[in-house]
Amino acid sequence: MGEANTSSIDDDLLLKNFYAEVSEVERDNEVARILSCFKLNAFEYLNLSFDSSPEEVKKQYRKLSLLVHPDKCKHPQAKEAFSALAKAQQLLLDPQEREYLVNQINAAREELRAKRKKQLKKDTASKLKSLVDEGKYEQEYEKSDDFQLQLKLKVRELLTDQEWRRRKMQMRISEEEGRLKKDEEESKEMWKRKREHEEQWEGTRENRVSSWRDFMKGGKKVKKGEIRPPKLKTEDPNKSYVQRPVKRG
């Protein structure tokens, strides 16, 4: 009897360990899925359809966040996956961010519909069926895995294009801000040099005034120790440049 009880306990322990291992594998797989998601689409992080409501977003976040919570998941990147989910929920609950994302999804859907319409023109049977079903044929098609995959890829394409344009615009703005800052710094440096020059000019004003007064009084004064050139003797006949008196008749 005792052996039977021991065997039962061992089985329960094995079963518990088995489910724990399965749960851990599931957690690791979810972390890997989250980290492989397209970074610009919050719906992908939460593994939701594009028409999910805010309430569905909250519900899915609670479910997945418990699955990959760093305190319960041993995966080394569990914290990173948990943060990605939190950011995705924040974006989808923000009216402006959600509107931007939904607009891109709608634009992608319209592109695929236009492409589908061109294809139906070539396929008479499909076109007739769509007319007979009064649009139900197309509605069913858009629910298909094939259309959903195309939509997912098209959304990625549009979001990537928009992000690239945003980054280019941001780069241009940064370059313009840098140019304006450089011009401002050069202007400040120019005015600084101008003020310093004016201050130096004003500082030497007394010396200049004094020198002018001395000049007006007796010409330039000979500084102490300065040697002045000898005066030319006008009576020296050998100097060709000496002006001789003009004889008058």
TrEMBL record:
Segments for region (Disordered): 174-249
Domain J residue range list: 41-106
Biased segments, Basic and acidic residues type: 174-208, 224-238
Family matches, as SUPFAM superfamilies: Chaperone J-domain
Protein name as catalogued: J domain-containing protein
Organism of this sequence: Lactuca sativa
